[in-house]
Amino acid sequence: MLVSANYKLSFDALRRELTGIDAWILVLDTRGINVWCAAGKGTFGTDELVRRIEAADLSPVVSHNIVVVPQLGAPGVNAPEVRRRTRFRVAYGPVRAADLPAFLKAGMRATPTMRTVTFGLRERAVLVPVEAVNVAKLTLLVAVGGAVAGGIGPGWYSIARALDRAPLAAAGAVAAMVAGTVVTPLLLPWIPCRLFAVKGAIVGLFAAMLLDVAFASAGTPLPLAATGVVAIVGASFAAMNFTGTSTFTSLHGVEKEMHLVMPWQAAGALAAAALWIAGGWY
After folding, report:
1. Cα-flanking dihedrals φ and ψ of residue 117, to 5°?
2. If exposure means fewest CB atoms within 10 Å of the residue's CB, which of 154, 166, 199, 254 is most exposed?
3. pTM of the predicted model, to two decimals?
4. Are residues 227 and 171 in contact, defined by beta-carbon separation less than 8 angstroms?
């Protein structure tokens, strides 16, 4: 009986490794959050595990009394408490789902390698599409909102002006997404500063410079400045969001970072909006 979270990437990774293995999967409701982060938040925890064991009525389903919990979920699960309340014993599985077949074959004994957490380039790259999807709606909203607001100017509103500025608005939104959800995760260990939001802002600054070069002949100073701020702020926000996927962070550190940088991100977003609208007149 293998325990997982209702986070698609975690569940799919587990299911993919179980080909030819006679096993059940018990899915905890972590509100779509991965095992590592949900364990810190408490949604992948003792109470939820007990609830799911009772709701699934596991005793008639399996002939043993063992549930295998991912090692990354250990901070949220009190094994003795689960045993006391359900009579099921918790065995902690390996870090990676790919090691489960060998772990099970060895009688649920893990090697040191199975217990070691890694987060290399390939592992970060796998998460890029997930993060990109998470901010896709926001990216579209910023692009469309910028295009619509781009029509504001002399005479109050011009559809022709909105269409003319739409490519710049879309470029800023896409640059922010790519900088924050693709480039920053891939280069994560090599970008200066510990705060993910600052790492994203640094990459966003380079993206802003590229936008300035690409649209130098087509944009006026204020809209170009607004687009640059969008790239920096958007990349900062998207990179900060990656803290929920990384093994480099802790719950306390993430909360501290959010309280520190989100007011600055909000101020930057307001400044970008003001510059963009003012650019209709200048």
Report:
1. -90, 125
2. 154
3. 0.75
4. yes
Residue type (1 letter), 210: L
2 beta partners: 25, 68
List pLDDT tens digits, range 228-270.
999 999 999 999 988 877 777 766 778 889 999 999 999 999 9
Structure tokens at 48: 């939820």
If phi > 0 it is left, if psi is from -120 to 50 it is alpha, else beta; for residue 108 that is: left
Whose tokens are 């809209």? That residue is: 223
Q: What number of helices (H) and strands (E) belong to the chain?
A: 11, 6
Where do the domains of the chain lie, and which CATH numbers do they carry? 2-115 (3.40.50.11600), 121-278 (no CATH)
Half-sphere exposure of 4 (CA within 13 A, CB side): 23
| 263-276 CB burial, b ≥16 within 10 A, e <16 | eebeebbeebbebb
